[in-house]
Amino acid sequence: MPVDLRVSLAGIDFRNPVLTASGTYGFGKEYAPYCPLAELGGIVVKGITPEPRAGNPVPRLAETPAGMLNAIGLENPGLEAFIAHELPRLKALPTAVIANISGFSVEDYRFMARSLQRDSGLAALEVNISCPNVKQGGMAFGTDPAAAEAVIAAVRAETDLPVIAKLSPNVTDIVLLAKAVQRGGADAISLINTLLGMSVDIENQRPALANTFGGLSGPAIRPLAVRMVWQVAQAVELPLIGMGGITVWQDAVEFLLAGASMVSVGTANFMNPQAPLDIRRGIEAYCERKGIAAVSELTGRALRGKG
Amino acid sequence: MLTNMRVIAHERLGDDVNIRRLVLEGEAAAEAQPGQFLHIRAADALDPLLRRPLSIAAIDRSQRRLTVLYRIKGRGTQVLAAVPVGGMLDVLGPLGRGFQVPSTGELILAAGGIGVFPLLALAAAAAERQVKTTLFWGGEDRAFFDNAGLRLWRDLGTPLSLATMDGSLGRKGLVTELLGLWWQERTAAKEPVFMAACGPAGMLKAVSLWAQTKAVSLEVSLEERMACGLGACLGCACQGRDSEGRLKNLKVCTDGPVFKAEEVEWDAG
Description:
Chain A has helices at 79-91, 106-115, 139-143, 145-158, 174-184, 222-235, 249-258, 268-271, 275-290, and strands spanning 7-9, 12-14, 18-20, 42-44, 61-64, 67-70, 96-101, 124-128, 163-166, 188-191, 195-198, 200-201, 206-207, 213-217, 240-242, 262-265. Chain A is α/β, with parallel strands linked by helices. In chain A, the strands form four sheets. Chain A has an eight-stranded parallel beta barrel, surrounded by six helices. A four-stranded antiparallel β-sheet of chain A has the order 5-6-14-11, with no helix packed on it.
């Protein structure tokens, strides 16, 4: 019997549990020649801000062991251009499209949420309260539970789309933030964003990134992400989208077993543009081998007998 | 395309242990244009994690072969250098916007150091069209040129004008000085001149300014760290101007790596 890969999360019916992570997948068109988007559960597109942003100076990237640092600085065309130039094409894609919004004040988030409703054709809004690469805002909202709650509540009040809060791992206790966004009215939580890191170029004796600090992603951060998914899964009622270094299907299964309902593939797209597809197939084969009828049965299975 | 290519040759280009010649065979050769690059995964491993963008130095469609010349610089190229002949490499590409190959007039190439590598493929394409081509090439010293493929240019029959920092070969000085001298000695212009340049940013800026004053059409090949190679990650930004003169970000991977010189804003960053 074929495995039922469908996942229902925050009222959205996804074809399968594999998404692509914001900031690694552009607006979808970049990868379309390599990965049939209809085969994915959905795509989370590049984060947008109310106004266009040019981003940070180069170098914006530095490779690290089993990982990479990025400090793109939220380069994006801005909300208006996103709606005018990207949304019409995104709407027509044969997969669920989730927009990712970032701001520098509660008002910024409110403004964007107001412009992005169900009739936009989007499946959901992912609220980025965790970008480490902009001077003010972004991560600031993601490290203070009261601020996180306020941002999510503001977005919740303005849009009829499902709201997904994306959490930062750069906190002492991620559970406090997860509970805060639950109180704010989030429909789901995605975690984790990148870890704030730094690397020094020893030849020119300067920070490797022009921005000095950047967000660490890739396989290096996976165990930390799995731990956070595990903790949050036990602390809140909301469904989770797990991410952080997922490179092959085994990684994705780990996140599902630890408590995620869906997974997002990020940095792995850079090495293998077909990674999300390979991962979806691998999850399916794993379920078949284990005699699991529906992928949703994997969620939190590693928690059985706990607590 | 995302494909596997077989390693046909992998060796030192000259005496310098760090400058290598890699010949790959596979489908990707059919589509390749001068100025494009291959995004190569050095190993099926997590470290190095990212692909490495390497420019195409020669295209042989009949034998389905592409040649890449590169300098070992960091971990990625170190690991790549260990891939043996007969091995397979995971290649994304050819990627990016390449050079326009002129079919009339005269082609002038300006290279700084190993920036000469992508110009070799352009010179070969121009030679097929019988376009008169001259290479102006600046390097450190005599040994550098031998190690960086001078003989490949001699084999191609391209007239060369060389400059070294120490005067051990050609003229002592910069490649832009060679260009200036050539222009002075040039008898009344008859043919339109097309220029292409690749090298360090400072050299490209100088060549750009020079070409602008002479009203010569110039294309430049840029380099920047990149992750995806497909225009998604926005890691390889460079600054340019749109048609109305406003500053905007360009992506080296998909808007380039070859740009018209006037598209690039040299002083913005």
